[in-house]
């Protein structure tokens, strides 16, 4: 497989050498000097088919140019109160690094409400974190550890996941589509913790739909996952919601060391970086308010199928709960 892989990388590199401006410039922002690793990521996403990978990569570069993704880190979400509202409702942050030097991203899937701003702001925020990860965090980690670090670890907290998540599926499908088409294979492993029954029900039907390489990356851990996660990261890098078992596990938006908060060093550094870049790009005049609109392709293939499956399963779960509640009410009346 390794020989085939190297040959595929070599063939794809030959095709990418023919790419002209402005695609060549934006491709440099994508690979950040880790050319072979970047080509391998896209090849994995297309099962090492060089022709399909070349089309995927060129399409992604065109998307970047058409949507000015190279400039998105110079487009702050203003005013700061709006950005704080986005942070309070789109719970994500960096809690530290794994023992191998991979940044640890934490996601509050269950407690994210996505109800404080338009879809465009949440998509803008997500892409900004992707770009900051790829252009700032990963190159810095690579320099620190003396080797290419091009992927991250994600810990997904399902605390508070409810049927109301149904309203978020469209936005989450948009974000997933953007990642699948333009940031493939950036996650080394997914750890899912604090799992309620509603997630377990969905996971049983979604898991078979995932590609084998994705299934292998996903681990559903018991409880808050602390003991398992301590095998791959130090305690200081654990997300706050993984630090201790029980109801006080730190799932709150405001618990100590909360990496979701705008006051956390990661978000302070990110927001300050974006503000500095905006001054460099537009040194005169106030920063324009308004979201950064990005064209998002319609979800297709497995992504759309998974989204529909989750919706269907949540509907079933909801109907089951309503039937259960009705039976309880009849029992009360009978009594």
From TrEMBL:
A Pfam family of this chain: CRAL_TRIO
Family annotation (InterPro entries): CRAL-TRIO_dom, CRAL-TRIO_dom_sf, CRAL/TRIO_N_dom, CRAL/TRIO_N_dom_sf
Organism superkingdom: Eukaryota
Gene3D superfamilies reported in the protein's UniProt record: CRAL-TRIO lipid binding domain
CRAL-TRIO domain: residues covered: 79-239
CDD domains, A to Z: SEC14 (cd00170)
Protein name: CRAL-TRIO domain-containing protein
